[in-house]
Amino acid sequence: MKDKVKKGGRNQAKAADVMSLIGGKDAVDFKQHEDTSFPVKIQGAGVEPFELQVHGFWLVQDTVMTLLSRDEVCPRSNFSLTLAGTTLDPLAELQSLKGLKPGGILRLVEEPYTAHSARLHLARVLELLRASGPQDALREGRSPSILETLLQTPDSSLPNGKSLKRSLSNTKTETTNQDGAPPEYLLPGSSERPLMALLPHSSQPESPSYLRDLSLSCWNPAPGHRKLQGDFLYITVVTMEGRRCEVTSCPKGFFLNRSTEEVFDPRPAQSSPVCHSFTDLLCHISPAFKKTLTTLKNRSRLPPVEGMPTPYHTLSWLGPPCASRTHKNTFSRLGVDEQSATQAPDWNEELQAARDLPHGSLEERLQRDRALLQVNGAFVRVVMQGAETVVDGFVEPVNGNPDDPAFLLGGLFMNQGAANAMFGGDRGRRAAQRLELKGVQAYSDIAGMQGLHTLPTAIVDYRGVRLSAQALAPGLEGSDQDQATTPASRGLLYGVAAGHQESPQRRRLLELLAQAAQSLSLQKHVVVGPNDHKVPLFTSVDAQGLLGADGRFYILDVFRIFPADANFCPEVETEGQTVTEEEESNKSCEEDEEKKGCVKEGWPENYQSDAGLPRSFPHGLCRLRPELVQAFTQHKHCQFTQRVREMLDENGGFEECATASDSRATQAVRAACQEVGSVSNIIFEMRFNPSVFSPEVSFPPGESKSTKLQERLLREAAAFIITHQIPAFMEACLQTNEAPMDGVSLKQALHQRGINLRYLGHVLTTLSQSEHKECLRHITRLVIGEIFTRSTRRVFNTFLQGVDVPNVSAAVSHFLCCLLVPHFTPAPVGDETKKKSRRRGRGAGVGVGTSESTPWGMLAGAELWNLVCQNAAETYNISDSLGSGPNHLVEHYGLQKISLLREFCLKTGVQLRLRDYVLDNQNKAPIGPDDILNIFPVVKHIHMLTVDASKAYQVAQNFIQKGLLDQAHEHLKEASYLFGRVSDDLHLEACYCHSLLAKVAFVQDKAAEARSVQLKAVVISERVLGFDHPNTIHQYALLGVYVFAGGETALAQKCLLRARLLMLTVHGEDHPYIATLDSCLGLVLPGDQRGKFLENALRLNTSFFGPSHLHTALNRHLLAQWMCSKGDYRSAMSHEKEALTAFISMLGEDHPQSRCSKEFLCTITKQAVKVERSLRQAGADCTEQTVECLSPTSDSKVEQMALVTGIRSVTHRDGLQEYRKKHKELKAAVAKELGFIVTDELVASETVNGGEKSSDQETGSRKEAEAGGSPAVENTSEGQQEQPVEETLVKSAATASVNGHVVEPAEVNGHEEKTDVDAADSDRAASDAEVKIVNGESEVRDSTPNDANSHTVNGEIGSDATVTAMKSESDEVNGDINGACDTPVSPSVLKSKGTWADVVSKANGGKDTAVNIAADKVTANGTAQE
Fold first, then answer.
1. Chain segment 1183-1203, per-residue pLDDT in tens
2. Phi/psi of residue 952, each to 5°?
3. Which residues contact 1248 (CB under 8 A, 6 or more apart)?
4. CA 146 to CA 1023: how far, in whole Å?
5. Rounded distance, CA 451 to CA 840, Å?
6. pTM for the full model?
């Protein structure tokens, strides 16, 4: 980890394309970086002189790292740079070097090797000689990148399998439509799901043979007398000419020695040079190697984003088709891949040293973020290796407890954790490990938190065992004598067991914990300790704070840091368990009597009977998610402001009460605080006690009132999930065509709204009772599938722990057969079966070489299904939903067995051999032992923040919300550069950033830039998220649009067909996004194929959204276009009439799109009459000409694809100007009430979401008000205004999501509405001012740190709205404008001005977002922020 401190690499080359707009000192620093780029000449070390472009802010070691990747230098290593004969300091900046000028000469000087650096050099040589491709990634269990095979395969898009030979492009020219048809399995209605098509062969040429053998010599290790003369190791080389050579590695390099297989003679061979580079020596002894190496260096290289390793392991559930290696690994016996037996790294010191790096300037923060990412990535890799080593039995436990064995390995402490009956046994133990990781993540994410540290933590599931891995904590390895002393002397300063102590260190730790508690919305509380002494806590009762031997403060055991979920807490049933029983005063007794009937205060009416909650759960660690805490706090804040307004209106109105000396305002705030449950009675402040509803915790009598309030708040928060969040999730799924596609995306969508997965049963119940359950059948399918696979995983974990290592493959294959094949029973293993298994390469039944007498071998399908159903009933409170077997899921819910198999493998780490599986054959086991290639560890780890890159990305999103695409484009370029500097672009947020940058470039008519950026986004998604992840499907669809816009029709077909293939495998054909893909395919495919896809898209959209929805209307318009091109005007007229009806009903007759559709219908009618007349008079000759006239142009197709995929959108603008006018009047009225001086000029110039603007104003004239990324209220008196929406087609805000879905009409409930950014900011400012005055002299602060931050819900960007004092006036405005709808409509083939490509803001009374491009808003840890 020595190179973790500062490392730039290739990414500095991007700096020339980026202009930072962060502001302040960082902007100056970034500008200086731009101005210090200059060329230098590189000479020496046996390389041909060449020129290198460097930057002044580079360190010398950055330059060295860049040189190592250059073809002119590779694979040379172990050299230094000199300037004018002086060796340069690796940590010096180039701009600080005296004498280094543009055109200056830097010389490479070969440095002597050490034993370690010699091995590193050999590793670099092997990396050069090995040709890594998708198959190598699959063999290692990593997700490969498939895009390269589509770009460079001229003859077939999917070349695997017998049925995959059908060509999509028969020539290398991709600018015209090809005659090849899609494979049958990709046509609408096909039930074939070939897995072989998912991972086509790489188009990279086979790696040539360089050497016959390369291995460590049998004469290793070097004897003592040769070590003293400098021999490191001996290498045996067999050249292609058949010559066998023995090579010695020494400090000067490599040379031939005189040893043979029989005789050891380490002396140098005659006429053998000493070469610093190993490849130079090989070229000297083998002409064939020299020739092949020249070819190797001249070959085309993959882009760095495809070749560089990902920070974390991305599992591929499919492995190579052949389990065994197809070629001899010539280099495996060299031994350089094996880790040397050095001292295990101190992972905690590595991480804390990276955290303590300076972060004053932008450059320092980038280096710090990169170091943190590298350390955490290395830590996670060691955790994966350690889990395999421990579970496979290669390490003995360091303790004697068989129930909780602990292991020390590679600087890690790994254990399973003790099963606690109070927490729920084994399931409680697993939950505690998961929650500990979440707690560590929460403390790590606190912005600006310096001084409070957490240990590197990860959890890993492998072969049914969950291990928790942490770095060794400093100060906990003391002697027995130390352990016998007081807690304070051991460094334990905080916690129930710490006792009463006073010290400066403890006071400092308490300050840090109080600061963290404020950020995490935790309430300070007091509990009764072991000796009946009162212990004040800022955390849960389990947490401990200690002072490590390194002088740092650490917080440990934070698995109960989040508030309890009252829906699953048995303690919610009874009173007194959370309050001490020794309340002796009469007052307390009377209080108890008064509140006896209010034990369950906080539950809605009839909550128990309607929702069946609260109820018990298999484990006792059910906690609320932080997203739910934030959403609930915002909900309570809305109630608070609403209540304040109502009480002020009752007492004479806001105008009369809004004076600093009026007590009615203060009383209103106090009353509102008490009603909503604020922990303060003078300001709104929502905090939660994590120790409430903990059965073993007792509170002192003085905490009784506070505890009752906390119980009430937690009940309300728990009910908020059922009454608000789950219905909001369903409504969001109902309005989008990009609903979740698999278990991962379903989990992410639920977590965005703070819904834990234990609520899947309640989600299923709500879906089944919904009037829209038919339109939400794809969500029901996903919920049932997720319940099934998660229940199956729990059964599988127990099943696998009883299997011996030699039988794991057979046991896993048997388990899958019992799971997926109905009525599967173990078959006798006879001689005939064994012969077939040997011949076909896969076993049957229980597998070859196993016995029926084993417990796992006796498992039958019916028994396994009963276990799964029992587990699902206990966990999710569902009965009979899973039916009697797998066929019930297929028939009743439309689930695919191949999709269930994929979900199971991804959750358990099982890797299957790549082949087509027939899962309906009851006579033969469809999955044999040879099909189980491997089981990989599944790791959950901490996600490191990329602060500056994420900030630039958020600023870009804010600009897009305001329609300022030029500024957004610059910020996105900057963000992509910063992501590259930190993570080499291999980061989740970098994928979203590149995708958004491509969208912005596309709507700015920069199709070439959009294509190149989107190519990278696809590769990042494939490698970081997975080759079949839902986001990868979206990225392929967007890439298809961009390449089609560039004229690459064949490549567009490949991309869209690839997306459809993945979609069919992941979910199936019955999903709204299939309609999106089919609509695009209906525009890019040639001939009659188009009709099949367009008709299928229309069928799906009608089924999911109804006949009058705009998705459906758009499809009808596309189908009418196609029918016109075929000459079927009668059917075209029918479809266009229905489309026109939908447009009029949704948009009104005066909407431009309605007029456009009406004109198109008139044109069709005239053409139909003309064709009919010509048929009667002169035959069918004229028909071809009229058909040709109505065929859509390529530009029209591109625009229509942009609409279908949501890249562009049309919104209803009626009432927008009226809304802006009313909003300005409201702001002026409130400002006047508050005593602000508002001039007419200011009021006239201030606009909402852009407003009106003079024609000569430019888009980029608005400046960001603050560098923090959140949009502030614009100072429009300085002319910071936007471009009018009528001025251009695309340079105004659009309404879309992370994947570009369209925004539907404003029919959602009030709690789902998003607030326009500018309106929210101005309203919030007025609200804050009002509350300050109402509150007298008390100052009101925001309820949560993120209360005003914009957020993403299912891809739509919005900001959290606060109910302000102008609510009644706002409602009046909303009443006028709420009918406005934000819907994409189709262009007609007729050229109408600004009809369907125009993108404008939505006029929904400030209650909806105004952006269609900016969705990829994701927090730094990779999950979408709500």
1. 444 444 467 888 889 988 998
2. -60, -35
3. 1219, 1220, 1223, 1224, 1316, 1318, 1319, 1322, 1406
4. 9
5. 62
6. 0.80
